[in-house]
Design the sequence.
């Protein structure tokens, strides 16, 4: 269980940007989608989701509009700004590089143990 | 979205945040219900998953980055609310600060242009003033000394001389006399200021018997000539001549050596005939200026001029009284201008610094006391999660708000203070016209305000947030109050000490003035009126016309009902007139500086000057009769020790004149100021003088209120000549008071400040004691339950208060003894360690602090042990 909430620093922002990139979406749906897509491995503590959303909005990476949901209620829908899109690309790339590098190192230490 | 937008849409944003959270919770709950949970349970779980909506919202606000601003606004509103809730505390603190800030701003406004701002001329630091010297003190230069120095020195770009000059506008409905300066051609060049209209003087204007030309001040040009743009070239009738206007000075031009000058005319002295020592060109009556060449320091110029003084040249003969034997004094113009007032102004600055300190200490003390009362509140907030920096910031906001309030009120106090100071300012305060509350002063006040706020706010803020806050909530917090009390006691002791320094200074000044006014001026000032007139126009070119006017005017004035006696004198005691002195010599042919009073017979009787020996001057001492002179007592004592001077001979006004016979000795009269050490005096009648003075002062002794007679007396003189300007109408009582206006000014400022300081210190003592009594209620209750009488309790509190006061007084007395060094030049007839003053101040401080102690002591003595003990 502990692994679920142990999101590395800064990862939450990246995940949110990625989910929002798929199309305008409200906060609750983001939480749901993160959980579903990661097959419950990534369980975003909902308490940190909203501050993160507001921070990203404040930095101009996300924009928000109030729209009706299918059930007819008004909700705050977040969408990616152009700046957010660029940020997502660079962060995703650097994440990719980082995980590859970490993977390589981990393999190396396994090899050393054998 | 900028921060302002965020702040202004705060409410909308809060609503949206709330809506977003609610949506989230509802969605989650709905899903859980769909999964089969009970609605209540579903909502509980949703809230749990989110982790406390309020906490999340708080984090969201933080994430937005406007938190500090929102907090600031909140702090500000909270501070305003708490200050409003305690109007007494707020009023006392804000008023205390306002007094400190306002007083320092006012004093700074007055002192700044005089002491610190450069004079209003380009490169003003290069303007020097040059004096001849006589027995080590400054003396005006003669015209030929100026000529010699200007010709021989190489250190100056320009040199100039000037003297006061009066011209009367003839052909006007009522004769108006203007004050101005008669200057050498280079005067404006030395100041580096050019006329705004027309031209500056040229050497061709300033030659012997040259053309009548005049430069007007902006004020005179506007007042009398309606700001006529075509004034240059116009001729205006002055003193029976037509003067051609050649220029108008710029609006902002200040003649710092003659602030009331409204015109300038060329001096037109005779540069030839230097070998004839009997001319006015050899009189010591000119002020001299020079503009240093760029790169030449004042020290170099001083050395050069003194080398010239020590080495006479053949082509520049020197009179014996202008031989420059004692060297020259060369100093910056700024230094010379402020020389006389510097001690007073610096003393006043010192006083206001003390006052500001006391005010700050007092407010700190008030805030500390309040911090103690609010310890519980702050502890509670800390327990609820407020961080220490947040608490400190809250307190700082409060004290800053208080300081701003005090600052705003202080500006009002400053404006009133500046007006009062200018109204009170001693006669001859230089640059009084330049005193205004200006931008720099406002910045100064604001700086002081902010500093006071932070300084005052920091101590309680740190104290409250220090240590175990939880203990603060508990009842037993009294036990932790020791450190705070030490701080407060220290502050009260320093307050008392500072107040003592001010009180002693004020006391010393008061005693000096008392001593001064006890000095007999040598005449009876009561019921005496004086006014000055100046002969106007060519009709008085002949001396005989002047004598005729004096006789007729006296006759007319004596006929005015209520007038007892009247006389004219060339030199009026304590009038502040330039104190021309003349040489006098006896059989030994050495020259002595004396005041020369040319007075009509009856002058000594009118003034009430005592006759010591011989007789006074009378109608028989007229032209053609043997020359008669009265001498002052101290001259008689120094010249004829143990002998009778009556019947001896002397020269008056230089060694080449005729012999006068001393016919009497009269009492000494203070000429310049009551503080003057006695100066030599001689009295002769106008018709026996070797020249007729240009201006004479009338003195009138009345039987009743003399000021009421002024209009009738003026009319009597105008009945003889309606073109005669009459100026400087004043009672001798007023002149007497004015002659000590500098000391009086310092004394009033010190007294006002000392009074405020005493009040503040008393509130400080009162505040500490009464806070202490409140906190010790229980102990006092126990004491009286155990049998302590009311007297014991009273003594307990009073003793505590008096121990604070006496420590403060002791420190203050030492401080005062040290500080009084700065006052020495202002004291007269009292030692700076005058025991009467010090004892008086101790008594006063003891009395006031006894009152401050009595109220809390009385309250303590009334404590009912039953009630206090039951309350535990």
Sequence:
């Amino acid at each position: 269980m502990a692994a679920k909430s142990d999101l590395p620093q800064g990862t939450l922002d990246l995940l949110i940007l990625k989910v929002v990139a798929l199309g305008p979406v409200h906060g609750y749906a983001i939480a749901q989608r993160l959980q579903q897509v990661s097959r419950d491995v990534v369980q975003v503590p909902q308490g940190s989701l909203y501050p993160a959303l507001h921070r990203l909005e404040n930095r101009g990476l996300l924009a928000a509009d109030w729209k009706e949901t299918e059930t007819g209620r008004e909700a705050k829908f977040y969408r990616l700004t152009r700046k957010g899109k660029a940020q997502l690309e660079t962060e995703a790339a650097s994440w990719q590089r980082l995980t590859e590098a970490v993977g390589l190192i981990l393999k190396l230490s396994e090899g050393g143990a054998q | 979205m900028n921060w302002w937008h965020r702040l202004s849409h705060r409410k909308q944003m809060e609503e949206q945040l709330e809506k977003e959270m609610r949506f989230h919770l509802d969605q989650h709950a709905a899903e859980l219900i769909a999964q089969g949970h009970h609605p209540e349970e579903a909502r509980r779980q949703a809230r749990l998953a989110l982790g406390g909506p309020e906490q999340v919202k708080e984090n969201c606000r933080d994430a937005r980055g406007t938190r500090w601003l929102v907090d600031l606004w909140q702090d500000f509103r909270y501070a305003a609310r708490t200050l409003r809730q305690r109007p007494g505390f707020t009023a006392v603190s804000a008023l205390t600060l306002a007094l400190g800030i306002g007083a320092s701003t006012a004093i700074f406004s007055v002192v700044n242009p005089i002491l610190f701002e450069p004079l209003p001329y380009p490169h003003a630091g290069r303007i020097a003033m040059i004096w001849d010297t006589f027995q080590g003190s400054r003396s005006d230069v003669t015209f030929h000394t100026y000529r010699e120095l200007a010709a021989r020195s190489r250190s100056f770009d320009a040199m100039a001389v000037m003297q006061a000059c009066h011209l009367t506008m003839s052909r006007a409905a009522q004769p108006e006399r203007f004050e101005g300066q008669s200057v050498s051609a280079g005067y404006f060049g030395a100041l580096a200021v050019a006329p705004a209209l027309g031209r500056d003087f040229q050497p061709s204007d300033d030659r012997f018997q040259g053309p009548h030309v005049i430069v007007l001040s902006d004020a005179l040009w506007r007042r009398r000539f309606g700001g006529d743009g075509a004034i240059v070239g116009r001729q205006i009738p002055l003193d029976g001549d037509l003067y051609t206007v050649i220029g108008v000075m710029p609006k902002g031009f200040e003649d710092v050596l003659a602030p009331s000058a409204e015109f300038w005319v060329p001096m037109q002295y005779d540069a030839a005939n230097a070998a004839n020592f009997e001319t006015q060109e050899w009189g010591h009556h000119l002020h001299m200026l020079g503009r240093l060449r760029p790169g030449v320091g004042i020290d170099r110029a001083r050395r050069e001029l003194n080398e010239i003084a020590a080495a006479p040249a053949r082509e520049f003969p020197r009179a014996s009284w202008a031989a420059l034997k004692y060297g020259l004094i060369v100093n910056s113009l700024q230094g010379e201008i402020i020389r006389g007032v510097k001690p007073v102004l610096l003393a006043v600055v010192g006083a206001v610094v003390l006052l500001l300190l006391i005010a700050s200490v007092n407010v700190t003390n008030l805030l500390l006391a309040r911090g103690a009362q609010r310890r519980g509140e702050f502890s509670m907030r800390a327990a609820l999660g407020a961080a220490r920096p947040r608490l400190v910031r809250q307190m700082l906001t409060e004290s800053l708000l208080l300081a701003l309030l005090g600052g705003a009120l202080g500006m009002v106090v400053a404006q009133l203070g500046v007006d009062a100071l200018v109204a009170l300012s001693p006669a001859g305060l230089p640059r009084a016209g330049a005193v205004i509350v200006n931008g720099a002063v406002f910045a100064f006040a604001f700086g002081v305000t902010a500093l006071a706020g932070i300084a005052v706010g920091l101590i309680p803020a740190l104290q409250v947030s220090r240590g175990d806050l939880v203990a603060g909530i508990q009842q037993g917090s009294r036990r932790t109050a020791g450190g705070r009390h030490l701080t407060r006691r220290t502050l009260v002791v320093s307050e008392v000490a500072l107040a003592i320094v001010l009180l002693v200074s004020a006391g010393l000044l008061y005693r000096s003035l008392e001593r001064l006014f006890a000095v007999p001026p040598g005449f009876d000032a009561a019921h005496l009126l004086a006014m000055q007139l100046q002969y106007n126009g060519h009709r008085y070119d002949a001396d005989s016309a002047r004598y005729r006017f004096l006789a007729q005017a006296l006759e007319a004035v004596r006929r005015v009902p209520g007038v007892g006696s009247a006389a004219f004198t060339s030199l009026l005691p304590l009038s502040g007139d330039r104190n021309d002195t003349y040489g006098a010599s006896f059989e030994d042919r050495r020259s002595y500086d004396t005041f020369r009073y040319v007075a009509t017979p009856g002058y000594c009787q009118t003034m009430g000057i005592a006759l010591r020996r011989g007789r006074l001057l009378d109608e028989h001492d007229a032209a053609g009769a043997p020359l008669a002179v009265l001498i002052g007592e101290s001259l008689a004592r120094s010249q004829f020790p143990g002998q009778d001077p009556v019947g001896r001979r002397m020269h008056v006004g230089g060694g080449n004149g005729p012999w006068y016979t001393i016919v009497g000795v009269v009492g000494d009269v203070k000429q310049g100021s009551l503080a003057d050490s006695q100066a030599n005096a001689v009295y002769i009648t106008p018709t026996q003088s070797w020249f007729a003075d240009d201006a004479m002062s009338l003195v009138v002794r009345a039987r009743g209120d003399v000021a009421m007679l002024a209009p009738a007396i003026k009319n009597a003189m105008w009945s003889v000549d309606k073109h005669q300007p009459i100026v400087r109408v004043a009672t001798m009582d007023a002149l007497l008071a004015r002659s000590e206006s500098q000391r009086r000014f310092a004394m009033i400022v010190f007294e006002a400040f000392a009074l405020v300081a005493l009040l503040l210190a008393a509130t400080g003592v009162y505040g500490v004691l009464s806070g202490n009594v409140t906190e010790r209620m229980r102990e006092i209750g126990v004491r009286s339950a155990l049998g302590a009488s009311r007297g014991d309790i009273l003594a307990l509190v009073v003793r505590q208060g008096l121990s604070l006061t006496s420590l403060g007084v002791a420190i203050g007395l030492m401080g005062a003894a040290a500080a009084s060094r700065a006052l020495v030049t202002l004291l007269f007839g009292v030692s700076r360690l005058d025991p009467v003053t010090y004892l008086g101040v101790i008594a006063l401080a003891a009395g006031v602090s006894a009152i401050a102690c009595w109220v809390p002591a009385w309250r303590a003595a009334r404590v009912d042990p039953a009630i206090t003990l039951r309350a535990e």
